[in-house]
Amino acid sequence: MHAETGFRESAAQALGDPQIRANFRRAMDGLMAKRAAQFPDPADLQALRSLGTAIRARSLLKLPELLEQLEASCLRNGIQVHWARTCEEGNELILGLLRARGATRLVKGKSMVSEEMGLNHFLEEHGVEALESDLGEYIIQLDQETPSHIIMPAIHKNKTQIARQFSQKIKDAKYTEDVDELTALARKVLRRKFLEADAGLSGVNFAVADTGTLCLVENEGNGRMSTHVPALHIAVMGLEKVVETLEDVAPLYALLTRSATGQAVSTYLNLVRGPRGPGELDGPREVHLVILDNGRSRIYADPQLRATLRCIRCGACMNHCPVYTRVGGHAYQAVYPGPIGKILTPQMEGVGVRHELLHGSSLCGACSEVCPVEIPIPEIIVRLRREATHRDPGSSVEGRGTGRTATEDLAWRVWAAVLSRPGAYRFAAWCATRFRNLIPGGLPLLKAWTLARGKPVPARRSLQERVREEGIPHG
Amino acid sequence: MADARATILESLRAGGGGEPVPLPSTEVLAARAWPPAERVARLRRGMEAVHTEFLEAVPGQWPSVVLGFCRDQGFPNLLYGPASSAGKALASAWTPRDPELIPYREPVETFKAALFEDVAAGFTTALAGVAETGGLLLEPGPEEPRLLSLVPPVHIALLLASTIEDTLWSAVRHRGWGRGAARNSLLISGPSKTADIEQTLAYGVHGPRRLVVVLVDNL
After folding, report:
1. How far apart are CA B128 and CA A379, in angstroms?
2. PANTHER family recorded for this chain (chain B) (predicted)?
């Protein structure tokens, strides 16, 4: 997905929308409080985070071996494994699986990777109904929107907006703002879809290499419906989702649910280890796992950027980000918004294309402070800001150096020229101190600063002049 | 996509390497341990906080507790796994005057419409419980199919107090939950729920609206 307008413009638009600001403010305040309540003991939290970080780091270190082990274990369990280098390859692969079985009705559990692939749109263009069954995803699909949060996709909407939408778009639905009634309405519609679906698709929270188990975390039961009712289950995952053993899942799961929504445990942790077995009366006849790269192997190649792949998609960084909580998810115009999106999107799509996202951060560090697997997001943002404007040899970052504008380039050249020539520096300092009030605030680069702040005014005398005037000895 | 597999693995190998990561300490998980009675209390607290209901029973008497509950609630029927030992015990407590006891014995393809539209409640056994957060561990299979605990609007689950583990981690490590031959393993902590509409909690969005645990005190 590429931005149609810049982050700067869409963020400014969001900031001017009181409804969006109120919806996000309320939701994020609640989520922050719930997470904090789940981690009352800082020492316990830190021990769990250290464990989670070590598990993810160790899994990544062994990634190629674990992926091969996962494949072998899955095959042994009867799960067929497919690999896709790009989103296009992944989409074609899934379409092929559906077509081979004559499947035209697909129900989907929540999957950010499928959002990354633009799967729904692709399948619909090829005659397959791809229905989101997570309530939040269903709500935004009705309005042909994209998720604004990775855990709570419809968080930007309030119940009045949803009530209006349901009454307009669901057949025979009466207008109601009662949340239980709205939920019951969705249940009625979606239960029929589960019953009729030819295939189900899910994401994967963790894939266990030694047992060939796909772990799915959810509250609604739509994930279980999508993966157990239809005859065909297709799971899609980014290649970084693998962990070594089932024991590794327990602490990661505890960190995930507590960090994401402030729940000690989700309603369901569903471990899928294969299709319907001998003597079983239900469950899918076939299970397929699609492993997607889409730039991840490139991210993996850089020791510092590799930490990005530790992410367990809890969304805590978004919930605590002072920028995200004010502009909301859509302002980023990316599948992954918020702090993790700021580092993931430019790495996937190229820093030249999406470098603007890297500047939507105050570098306050709230994201890394709450990250359950200790991803140093601010450090990676700073690194990628440099990558966007420099062509460092040896870097594998896609599009590096292409974010440098002609104005910036000129400004830095002038800066370097002035600072490396004592005469030029003295002259520039003399001009800046003498004409200090005459510098126009609308100059390129300065303009962005003066939009929201007063114009910086140089001192009356330069430091060198003052030192000289006051007779301070110096070398 | 054999090419894709080779390309991906090759680029991961080319870009791999790094300092070895020490085996993580699991002390923080091992420290979470409680005496049996405390495990029961913790499990109840955790599950009741997310709207799970509890019925208490003593060993040998639980079928009549289930039956009494179904009668009281006016359920027209109860779906169960006839081949499981709990299913057999349940069937022996039932009489023709009671709510219909429906055995899950057909493949779902021929039973799906009835399962979705006509069944009032489903009965399963829980393999174990998790004290720390509250939750039931299930391993559906031939005796108790996967959809028994998902499609009916009410899920009734039988749990022996003696099977409650301290944590999910200890259940995996010591009991081997999820590591055996079962093709599906589940942790369930309550009825299906969502907070997708304005962060307001609503129960029964897709799965069961109610989870009722029949807790057998066999400590």
Report:
1. 44
2. LACTATE UTILIZATION PROTEIN C
Torsion of CA A211, A217, A220, A224, to 10 degrees: -20
**Cβ distance B125 to B143 under 8 Å?**
no
SS3 A242: strand
Q: Which of A54, A247, A301 sits opposite B173 (nearest CB)?
A: A247
Q: In whole angstroms, give the CA distance from residue A319 to residue A333.
A: 17
> How many of the other CB atoms lie within 10 Å of CB of A328?
28
Render pLDDT for B99-143 as a digit per residue (tens, 0 to 9). 999 999 999 999 999 999 999 999 999 999 999 999 999 999 999
The CA distance from A225 to A134, in Å, is 10
Q: How many other C-beta atoms are found inside a 10 Å radius of the C-beta of residue A386?
A: 16
| Angle between helix A42-61 and A63-77 (nearest 10) | 80
CA distance B71 to chain A (A): 25
Q: What pLDDT score does A3 carry?
A: 47
Beta bridge partners of residue B213, listed in sequence order: B54, B157
pLDDT digits (tens, 9 = 90+) for A387-444: 998 888 888 898 888 888 888 889 889 999 999 999 999 999 999 999 988 888 888 7
The answer to whether the beta carbons of residues A222 and A134 sit under 8 Å apart is yes
Is A45 in contact with A251 (CB distance < 8 Å)? no
Query: Quick one: closest CA in A to B186, which residue?
Result: A270
Q: What is the full DSSP assignment across A296-310?
A: HHHHHTSTTGGGGGG
Q: Which fold has domain A1-38+303-404?
A: Fumarate Reductase Iron-sulfur Protein; Chain B, domain 2 (1.10.1060)
Of the candidates B104, B184, B185, which has its C-beta nearest A281's C-beta?
Answer: B104
The Cα B191–Cα B212 span in angstroms is 9
Q: In chain B, which residues have their Cβ closer than 8 Å to the Cβ of A228?
A: 146-147, 150, 184
Chain B residue with minimum CA distance to A224: B150
Sequence spans of domains, chain B: 35-216
Task: For residue A178, name the pLDDT band (cuts at 50, 70, 90).
Answer: very high
In single-letter form, the type of residue at position B103 comes to P
N-to-C CA span, chain B: 54
Contact residues on chain B for A44, CB-CB shorter than 8 A: 28
Do residues B126 and B171 touch, judged by C-beta distance below 8 A?
Answer: no
- B134/A282 Cβ within 8 A: no
Q: What is the ipTM of this complex?
A: 0.97
Pairing between strand A213-218 and A206-208? antiparallel
Option in A64, A222, A251 nearest B29 (CB): A251
Per residue in A26-80, pLDDT tens?
899 999 999 999 999 999 999 999 999 999 999 999 999 999 999 999 999 999 9
Residues of chain A with CATH 3.40.50.10420: 56-294
A195–B116 CB contact, under 8 Å: yes
| Of B146, B167, B200, Cβ closest to residue A179 | B200
The answer to whether B1 and A83 are in contact (CB under 8 A) is: yes
Of A453, A414, A344, A269, the residue nearest A113 (C-alpha) = A344
Q: Does domain A56-294 have CATH number 3.40.50.10420?
A: yes
Asked if residue B175 has pLDDT above 60, the reply is yes
Nearest-by-CA chain A residue for B27: A47
What percent of chain A stands above pLDDT 70?
99
Six token digits for residue A32:
């922050």
Instruction: State whether B206 and A47 contact (CB < 8 Å).
Output: no
| pLDDT at residue number A2 | 45
Chain A residues lying within 8 Å of B151, measured CB to CB: 225, 229
Would you call A179 and B202 a contact, using CB atoms and an 8 Å cutoff?
yes
Instruction: Please check whether residue B172 touches A, CB under 8 A.
Output: yes
Any A CB within 8 A of B110 CB: no
